[in-house]
Amino acid sequence: MIIFGIKSRGIFNFMKAAIYCRVSTEEQHAEKQEYLCQEHCKRNGIDVFKVYTDVISGTTTSREGFNQMLTDMRLYRFNTIICTKLDRVGRSLSHLLSLFDEFKKKGVEFIAVTQNIDTSTSSGKLQMQMLAAFAEFERNMISERTKEGMKRAKNVGKRGTDKKERKKRGGLRKAQFAL
Description:
Elements: E1 2-3, E2 6-7, E3 16-23, H1 31-44, E4 47-55, H2 64-74, E5 80-83, H3 93-105, E6 109-112, E7 117-118, H4 122-155, E8 158-159, E9 164-165, H5 171-178
Parallel strand pairs: 3-4, 3-5, 5-6
Antiparallel strand pairs: 1-2, 6-7, 8-9
């Protein structure tokens, strides 16, 4: 029995891909990521099943578009996931490795078009594992710098994006009692 051009056992007659795009903030746009992935598919004769997009931090493991993509993957609707970079999928090494383990069990390959990662090859698998470790390292470095900056801002009496001076507690009360 064939569903959506896919045999019910999850074996494909052709390459069908899900494209995943993620940006961290509303000010960023996923269109460039989608364009690069679509171009890769056109060059390589890959049919696109669906484009999934999220506007959320990569450190968040539960993302609406990503979760829908995983649901469709589990229903064998595609056999390849394509994105621009590995860190679009996630930044935690343990999370990435568990995802790639599930991809392997479902017969799904992963391609990161700007990093030349293709898990259908041995070198692509090795490169993916190394980049996953670097993605987690980068996330940890960003977190450390952010915490360091917040600590430094607190020590100089500034907070938030407006960098206004903090009001000293009790200043208003002391002024009222002085009258």
